[in-house]
Amino acid sequence: DLQWQLSAVCLFLAWLNIILFGRNLPGYGHYIIMFLKVTQTTVVFLTLFTLFIIAYGLTFVTVFGNHIPFMTIGRSLIKSFVMMTGELDFGATFVDRRSDPKPNNLVFYDGVSYFLYFTFLLSMCVIMKNLLVGLAVNDISKLLKTASIKQACLMIELSLRAENMMTSKLKFVFHDSYLDYRPNKFPDGFWPYFKETVVASIFPIKLPERSKLYVSETGHDNMFRNRTLQW
């Protein structure tokens, strides 16, 4: 039994790790970053939300204690949380007692029970859910402006970690000791010059801001240590 439980937890954590690793993927990483930010906001919001769950959970134990979902405090808290998602189960709580008058279906305090039930419906299912959606929309609107920059930072960090894991000989194989960058000269012949001037003027391609990373490196000994990065 313990083996199956640990297997389920390990599978979940493994796939969660794959999802977090996807933050470095272009085109999808910023969505994962936004998801993590909304999750963080939700966890902070749950500190206030938990107080309402405890309040209604203890209240429902008092007035619906004969119903199976509310017989214990633990069940009542879980049922209150599930009811917030939309599973109100109004028929089983108030209607089934008329067709099947069992002790587990009876409601002994109609006035207070209806009042507390509809108070829960208004405060938890309407106000709280709309407030949570509003917080998520606010976070997403802010992250849309900075998510791509954060993703680029994560990609650079991943590249630097990969370089640090490589041996010195392997670095030497994939490294050019000297990089000469001349933006205003075309040493490769006429066609590169024609493509960069005439074709570019006819079919202009607007590059996004901060889209080029220029790297200047010299020397074999400091090839992965001393570098100049200019945005």
UniProtKB/TrEMBL annotation:
DNA damage keyword on record: no
Domain Ion transport: 8-144
TM region positions: 6-22, 43-65, 114-137
GO annotation, cellular component aspect: membrane
Pfam families given in the database record: Ion_trans
Keywords in alphabetical order: ANK repeat, Glycoprotein, Ion channel, Ion transport, Membrane, Repeat, Transmembrane, Transmembrane helix, Transport
Subcellular localization: Membrane
InterPro entries found in the cross-reference section: Ion_trans_dom, TRP_cation_channel
Membrane topology: Multi-pass membrane protein
Gene3D superfamilies documented for this protein: 1.10.287.70
GO terms (BP aspect): monoatomic ion transmembrane transport
Protein name from the UniProt record: Ion transport domain-containing protein
